[in-house]
Amino acid sequence: MLFCILLEIRPPHFLAPADQLSDSDRSGSCSSQKMADNWILTVTARTPTNIAVIKYWGKRDEKLILPVNDSISVTLDPDHLCTTTTVAVSPSFDKDRIWLNGEEISLSSGRFQSCLREIRARAGDVEDETKGIKISKKDWEKLHVHIASYNNFPTAAGLASSAAGLACLVYSLAKLMNVNEDNSRLSSIARQGSGSACRSLYGGFVKWIMGKEEKGGDSIAVQIADEKHWDDLVIIIAVVSSRQKETSSTSGMRDTVETSLLLQHRAKEVVPRRIIKMEEAIKNRDFESFAQLTCADSNQFHAVCLDTYPPIFYMNDTSHRIISIVEKWNRSKGIPQVAYTFDAGPNAVLIARNREVAADLLQRLLFYFPPNSDTNLNSYLLGDKSILKDIGVEEAKDIEGLPAPPELKATQKYRGDVSYFICTRPGSGPTLLSDESHALLDPATGLPK
Ligand SMILES: Nc1ncnc2c1ncn2[C@@H]1O[C@H](COP(=O)(O)OP(=O)(O)OP(=O)(O)O)[C@@H](O)[C@H]1O
Ligand SMILES: C[C@@](O)(CCOP(=O)(O)OP(=O)(O)O)CC(=O)O
User: What sequence ranges are listed for the domain Diphosphomevalonate decarboxylase-like N-terminal (predicted)?
Assistant: First the structure.
């Protein structure tokens, strides 16, 4: 029986007209055609976001997304910030479709198309004996997919949604289509969806090697160390604004490449040295060097944005205030306690050397940026909320009683200038979610649940 069902399943609209069917086609056509109308195969995966500590900014090839320098990132714990994507294939689908955060969006962009094309070109044979489904390598060119993706954090707000999103798209499709390639090879496909996405194929500490080849085959991500290597680190993100930004990373870096002389100096002289030092700092868990390099690189990235014509401003007054709080505190301690870094937006990503320092940091941040009176504490700190206990904050009113940081003379507060905080840590790479309850597509219809 199973053999009969498995004979050959072709999408109904690709079935040959009856008079062109061979005997073997006919012998299996009844059950397989019936099955062909009904089956849906799905895969769900979860992929983390990442924050660059040595920034990628500038492409040498826009279409293939090849960068002008190497970059290094820390993968953030997917328990707190992640994309979940379900991909489905069925002969009953008549076109490729994608839903992002519940809304259908166009798949026509060159970037989505590049990822789909590259994955399809590497697809393998798939057989699901329990469902009686067999898809051969060549069938993938004709079958269509449905994709549903959800980011559990703001999209297009400088929190690298494109990184987690495109990495998850490529990873889940690769699993659905049985692509037999390691994550580094998959990273070079994700790179063509969004540069920073290639680094989300690994957990821990990741380097995107810029590569030299014209076609970009050697522009891949590699893991420097996994998330357990340096598990003291605690990361606090201050979400300063979750509105969509004015200048996208893509257009911003294009303008920078065209107009900034500082970028050329950075890519040629500064980053190559910093990459070597940053790799060493990570391998040796040398927080002092790690923090010094991270802050310097973030500052240079924003200087390069300012050196662009027309100038790009991603940070705002709140971002600058946070830098000042951290700089003064680090100086008062003699050695860095916290590193800061800002991507293409005003949100601060603060990396504390350990949990104790992270608690002191959160105390300072809550002191200067208390929530509005109508904000609930539960929605003001997301992620690992247990850190609130460390500073004795159980309710929003406890924030009012926090002591002023001793190293700072100014005690003016900036109530409401931070939308919320996220407390997280370095985290793991992509994972498959086998529990059906995580799927975003209905297994019976292939449409969003
Ligand atoms: N889960 C997802 N699946 C597929 N595509 C996504 C997903 N999330 C985001 N994207 C794509 O990425 C775009 C947002 O990218 P953009 O670079 O503007 O912002 P960001 O990645 O949040 O910020 P940044 O890269 O500057 O930190 C979205 O408009 C969408 O096209
Ligand atoms: C500031 C950055 O976050 C830039 C991210 O740029 P994207 O990867 O979003 O850009 P595209 O490749 O055009 O999609 C720094 C970084 O992540 O390295």
Answer: 48-221
